[in-house]
Specification:
It is a single chain. It is built from three helices and eight strands. It is α/β, with parallel strands linked by helices. The strands form two sheets. It has a four-stranded mixed sheet with strand order 1-4-3-2, covered by helices on one side. A four-stranded mixed sheet has the order 5-8-7-6, with helices on one face. The protein is globular, with a radius of gyration of 16 Å. InterPro entries: Glyas_Bleomycin-R_OHBP_Dase, Glyas_Fos-R_dOase_dom, VOC_core. This is Glyoxalase/bleomycin resistance protein.
Amino acid sequence: MAAMDISIHATYLPHNDHDAAIAFYRDVLGFEVRNDVGFNGMHWITVGPPGQDVSIVLYPPEATPGITDEERGAISEMMAKGTFASINLATKDLEGVFERLQARDAEVVQEPVDQPYGVRDCAFRDPAGNMIRIQQLS
């Protein structure tokens, strides 16, 4: 069977503060802002690492079709606790990236550590509470 030609194009993370989301992903992580679409007071922001085709779409969770007010409340609570969404990133210089993010006042959740499952990583939270784990590449 031939391999399919499929790549990851975008992943979605919720945000609840347009300006804070842009400041974190652009100014702290160094990502490009590729698109910023506003509609009815909400914003969908597309960001990504320079030179890579994959993107993160930061979306307003309240715009998700079909969810109830109770579900919106649960999402807001989970975002505030940092348990709703996450993404794993990777770098060849984990220590250097950790130091730069810490110096830019990113919210540190975990300093670089060797995990029992075989990776070395660290963790931060973005302004919406999303967990950002960064793993050391070999």
